[in-house]
Specification:
This protein is α+β, with helices and mostly antiparallel strands and 92 residues long. It has two helices and six strands; from the N terminus they run βαββαβββ.
C-alpha cells in the first residue's frame, strides 16, 4: 500500500473548534508550528479518515484547512530549519 507525507495547515476562527482540530491531528501527526502538522507515512485511507474528522468539526464559512501532499523524494528535515529572527543561520 502506497504511503505519502502531508502538510496539514489550518486557520480556525473558533477556539473550541481549533482545540478539537489540534487534538485530532496530534494523535496522528507531528506539530511543526501552532497550526501546521506533518503527517508522515499516511495511506490514502489514513488521509481520508483525518479529512472526514476535520470536515465534521470545521465551519466552512469561517475556517480554512489545507492539506498538501509532500514529495518524499524531496524530503523535509524536521531537525534543521532557518530561524528568521537570525537570518542565514541554520540550526541543527
Amino acid at each position: 500500500m502506497k504511503k505519502f507525507n502531508f502538510l496539514i495547515c489550518y486557520d480556525i476562527a473558533d477556539p473550541k473548534r481549533l482545540a478539537k482540530i489540534a487534538k485530532s491531528l496530534e494523535k496522528v501527526s507531528i506539530r511543526i508550528q501552532k497550526s501546521i502538522f506533518y503527517y508522515m507515512e499516511a495511506t490514502a485511507k489514513d488521509i481520508e479518515q483525518i479529512v472526514t474528522i476535520i470536515e465534521k468539526i470545521i465551519n466552512r464559512d469561517e475556517d480554512d484547512v489545507r492539506v498538501y501532499k509532500v514529495d518524499k523524494n524531496l524530503s523535509i528535515n524536521l531537525k534543521r530549519g532557518i530561524d528568521l529572527k537570525k537570518p542565514n543561520i541554520i540550526k541543527e
